[in-house]
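Changelog note: in this version the structure field was regenerated for every chain. One regenerated record is shown below for reference.
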Amino acid sequence: MSVVAKICGLSSEAAVEAAVAGGAAYVGFVFYPPSPRAVTPGRAGALCAAVSAGVQRVGMFVDADDAAIEAVLAAAPLDILQFHGAETPERVAEVKRRFGRKVMKAISVAGLEDVAAASRYEDAADMLLFDAKPPRRADALPGGNGLVFDWQLIAGRKWRLPWMLSGGLTAALLPEAVRISGAKAVDVSSGVERRPGDKDPDKIRAFLEVARGL
């Protein structure tokens, strides 16, 4: 069975087209202004118009308040809300109830204690995403830093929710990442870019081709 893929941080029609045509199951839009991948709600709404039925549209937020989420949903028809900040399980459950959308919670991983923390969200979220913990720099982003964590930390583990592997993935790294982690779904952003925020349609197609073949 092919590995399911999410292409995150999309901001151009060409990148969205490459993701959808290449078979991505999820397309992601970033609503975190410090990120070079951030888009406005209106821009995301326009890009969503090119997403065919059956492809899940994901919005990535970082410690966003209700007003910010409402503004996005008023312009962009998102299917899933992804939270990549310090949101508590209580906050995740609250947002899910309030907005009636599925919720994905990102777990930043550097050690076993981080992996163990994922269980706190099993009753609140619909999906989990395991990403590398950001570096300790003032300009570090919550995700999309191109960093890989030790995939052995999640190998063989079971959660009650579907989960994705993220963090520094590329077409070249994908087979080994899936083999070690056991991931059935993966998320990529920086690994399909020319430079931060500039998605390369050729790299998107190559990544998805590898994912289909696994």
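Spot check on this record: The two ends are 7 Å apart (CA to CA). The CA atoms of residues 116 and 154 lie 10 Å apart.
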